[in-house]
Amino acid sequence: MTVYGLTGKTGAGKSTVAAFLKEKGFYIIDGDVIARHITDKGKPALKLLSEHFGADIINADGTLNRKLLASRAFSSPENTAVLNSITHPLITEEFEKEIEKAVKEGYTKAVIDAAALLESECKNLCSKIIVVYAPEKMRLKRILSRDGITEREAKTRMKAQKSDEYYFSHADIIVKSYLPHNIEKQLQTIL
């Protein structure tokens, strides 16, 4: 089993690249789905998150108020680090289970699609790292249309992430996810 890490800044186009790789027969492990799963109602991560970010991040029905958590977690590098220290070990464990599932189902190539891949132990599960890139203005536009948040909230999230150089320095493959660049041509070596 060859496992590729797929990462990049918010709004870069990771989902588009993941969808393309899925069409090409890769088993896709979606970090956002895993992150939601570990913070489902009644899961241990909820208690830990509420201890650090406030009890009010838990809605009356016991579910996580993701928007409120995000506004607090991405308000400073320290808060982002706390969020990651709580969620990353649990996410890594789930990724390992998904890789085992992919092997049992006969897949030979899998992709871990995770925004915070490089900041977590998940990167150690990967043979190669694919970084998806798009210019800042394009990313902002994508985030605003996708997430239904204010420009200020979007920029706060964007500022919470590391520099382009950080991502590039960890990349085995860089995919530019905007025209005139062709995703298939850029990923030819792994298809």
- Percent of residues in helical segments? 40-55%
Coarse structural class: alpha/beta
| DSSP strand tally | 5
Low-confidence stretches: none
Please state the average pLDDT score.
94
Percent range for β-strand residues: 5-15%
Shape label: globular
What is the name of the CATH class? Alpha Beta
Number of domains: 1
Which strand order spans the largest sheet, edge to edge or round the barrel? 2-3-1-4-5
- CA-based gyration radius: 17 Å
Summarize the helix and strand pattern as letters: EHEHHHHEEHHHEH
CATH superfamily: P-loop containing nucleotide triphosphate hydrolases
Highlighted features:
9 helices, alpha/beta, about 15% strand, globular, about 190 residues, 5-stranded parallel beta sheet
